[in-house]
Design goal:
Blueprint: E1 2-6, E2 12-18, E3 23-27, E4 33-41, E5 54-62, H1 71-85, E6 89-92, H2 95-110, E7 114-115, H3 120-129
Parallel strand pairs: 5-6, 6-7
Antiparallel strand pairs: 1-2, 2-3, 3-4, 4-5
Helix pairs in contact: 1-2
Length: 130
């Protein structure tokens, strides 16, 4: 799934799900990767086949040359919407995802999204698999 949106400067960017690399990617108009939101498939049923029901969001990055354009916010928003649409539970280890869900978790739940707060076991899982 891919979506084209405008960043805070009015420039068009495209957000896509790179399932093979377990990330959501934002690209500028030229196609250059501007940022990524990385996740691990949770260790529950189906995880070994990449079809687990959880996405442990552990790291979001945007290149310095793209800073100030709101791309991290776009990545987080798109990732949450796509996770809701595909019925995946979001586990926010990344501070950006945790902050967004603290502020807007009820809105996410209202659109059918699912999330749970990260546990020590989740943090250990990330350490072992990244």
């Amino acid at each position: 799934m891919s979506e084209t949106v405008q960043d805070s400067t009015g420039a068009r960017v495209r957000v896509e799900h790179d399932e093979q690399n377990s990330a959501f990617v934002v690209r500028d108009d030229s196609g250059e990767v501007a940022g990524r939101a990385h996740y691990l498939v949770g260790p529950g049923p189906g995880a070994e086949a990449g079809a687990g029901t959880e996405r442990i969001m552990y790291h979001t990055e945007v290149g310095e040359e793209f800073s100030g354009r709101g791309l991290a916010k776009i990545l987080v928003s798109h990732t949450l919407k796509e996770s809701s649409d595909s019925m995946k539970t979001v586990v926010p280890v990344c501070p950006l995802f945790a902050e967004r869900l603290k502020e807007h978790g009820n809105d996410f739940l209202a659109i059918g999204g699912r999330f749970r707060w990260a546990t020590e076991a989740d943090l250990e899982y990330v350490k072992q698999n990244v």
